[in-house]
Fold:
Amino acid sequence: MTRQMIIATTLEELRSARLLLDGPVGFVPTMGFLHAGHISLVRRARDECKSVVVSIFVNPTQFGPNEDLSKYPRDLDRDLRLLEEAGADLVWTPTPEVMYPPGFQTWVEVQEMTQPLEGAQRPGHFLGVTTVVAKLFNAVQPTKAYFGQKDAQQAAVIRQMVRDLNFPIEIVVCPIVREPDGLAMSSRNVYLDTEQRKAATVLYRALSAAKDAYEKGERDAEKLRRMMKEVIEREPLAQMQYVSCADYDTLQELDKVTGKILLSMAVFIGKTRLIDNFVLG
Ligand code: AMP
Structure:
């Protein structure tokens, strides 16, 4: 069977291509510069749905003024090749003007769940994320949407938004895909030089140390946080931004560990900000 992957840029092109797709429709939103983590989401959607839509959009509103928007890596030709191989049916690559036409003034805000962790370090980040994802959902009208556990808080915030705004969409969260040495795959890993790339395993090492302690029975959340912090502090090229041991559902910091928990962190390696997490319990 020959299958032609359709590439849409404008909203009109997306809508007319979407009308031709058989359901259920799976949707994978991305910012491009794709790696095996993104492709795992596309393959999961391929397994579970009749049609697969992928968006590639580096969303300016989720970047802070001092973040890496202008140098965020891009390679559309390579992305399209990878998506064709992975079995995407429709790829939407809107421009900023398509997503934010002149006079744009409507925002979608999830209030509490966006306050801690990434939200505390990146003011306005989740306002950009929820607004763009709501717009992507409205345009694509998927049956299921696929997100990575890599961005744990993002997945939780999107689930909350979908519940609160009655989007008829099932959110599927997929496991983190890692390099052989444990580093979580990320488009931003390309910023790392050879020395930094070695140092970047510190996130996985710190999470693993806390996991080992947890498995040996440690239930003092502060001790787990301290343990992660100590591993990061021993790595000269790493600068910790936060470490967290939080309740998986509420994302609130814990004193005593019970139930399902999220160990997470943001660490600078040079100028590159990396995040990672483990879910335990
Ligand atoms: P991004 O292009 O960084 O916005 O990521 C698009 C989607 O891919 C998000 O749902 C991410 O959580 C997911 N993702 C990114 N990196 C990974 C990874 N290493 N493993 C699994 N999913 C990932």
